[in-house]
């Protein structure tokens, strides 16, 4: 019988839920720092879905320079921009793993390929932040300096962080009478 050991993220992000109600940006920063630390990635960002902007906008980031931030300032939500990991994850509602950006069909022939390579992002994974109804609220993405296998265990770990961030984000943006209730069913 095979025993599967899963890593459980620890730290402030999982211990400070009540403090985040007043400061959702701090929560997103802690979520990103937790994801980067536990994944072994060197960079990352959290984007939030902004209907007025028409897509995902970077809310917090670690390790990126202006060219990357300008290029990915808004990733359209209309499904036409599936030429990035976060765009694909947004349209599918599921995590997207890109173990080798240079060889990936996600970035092939796109302007995003050059931007990713120039930013030193050789592999990445984007995981949707979804509320309890499945509505995408945003995206958690980590980026690696080298191509690498991104395992199912890595994806599960990032999913745990993304789920926690989505719950905290929903709670932080709800009013006092809108406390998060378990889904019926």
Average pLDDT rating: 85
Spatial order of the strands forming the largest sheet: 3-2-1-6-5-4
Structural class: alpha+beta
Range of strand content: 15-25%
Cα Rg: 16 Å
Describe the biggest sheet? 6 strands, antiparallel
User: Which blocks of ≥5 consecutive residues have pLDDT under 50?
Assistant: 176-185
The rough form would be described as globular
Q: Report the strand count.
A: 6
- H and E order: HHEEHEHEHEEH
Can you put this structure into words, describing what you see?
The protein is globular, with a radius of gyration of 16 Å. It is built from 6 helices and 6 strands. Strands 3-2-1-6-5-4 form a 6-stranded antiparallel sheet, with helices on both faces. The chain has 185 residues and is an alpha+beta fold. It is 35% helix and 21% strand.
Summed up:
This protein has helices spanning 12-15, 24-39, 66-71, 85-92, 111-118, 152-173; strands spanning 43-50, 55-62, 74-76, 96-98, 123-130, 136-144. It is α+β, with helices and mostly antiparallel strands.
